[in-house]
Structures are given as C-alpha cells and as structure tokens.
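Structure in, sequence out. Go:
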C-alpha cells in the first residue's frame, strides 16, 4: 500500500476517533461512530490499522524505543490508547 493511500485511510480512521476525554468516553463515542459507517469504511479502517500494526511490529523488530513508536503514531495522528481502542472496536 502506498503511503499516500495509507495517509488517506488514516485520515478516515482519524475522522472516526474521538479527540479527547476519558477512555470510557472515547469507547462510547467510537461505538456510536462505528454504527454510522458502512461495512466498506469499516474494512478500510481495519486495513489502515493493520498496516500501522505491521509498521509497529517492524519498528519493534528493528529495535525502536517506545518513544520512537509514540512519535510515529503521533505523526499518524493517533495515540497508543486510541490505536488500542480502534483495534478493539474493529476486532483486531
């Protein structure tokens, strides 16, 4: 997948992500948002998250620190907590 396509998919994921609040509030908001998107959008979001997971796995294998991983996720516009919640919501 090209980075441009990954960026577009990540933007779609970010549009579904809550911007602030407690984890419980984020989870509730994500459940509400997930109910609004169609199966194709869910699949695209799942694919984007799987790409992010693969990159993180590669970073870990290459010896990346937690700070480097957090910086990568920040560039993608998502926190570790948001990533974990999205994975839970999408069943990844």
């Amino acid at each position: 997948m090209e980075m441009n396509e990954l960026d577009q998919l990540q933007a779609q994921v970010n549009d579904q992500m809550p911007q602030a609040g407690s984890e419980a509030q984020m989870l509730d908001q994500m459940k509400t948002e997930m109910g609004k998107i169609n199966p194709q959008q869910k699949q695209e979001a799942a694919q984007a998250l799987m790409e992010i997971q693969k990159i993180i796995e590669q970073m870990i294998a290459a010896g990346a620190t937690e700070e480097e991983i957090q910086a990568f996720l920040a560039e993608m516009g998502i926190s570790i907590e948001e990533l974990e919640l999205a994975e839970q919501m999408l069943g990844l």
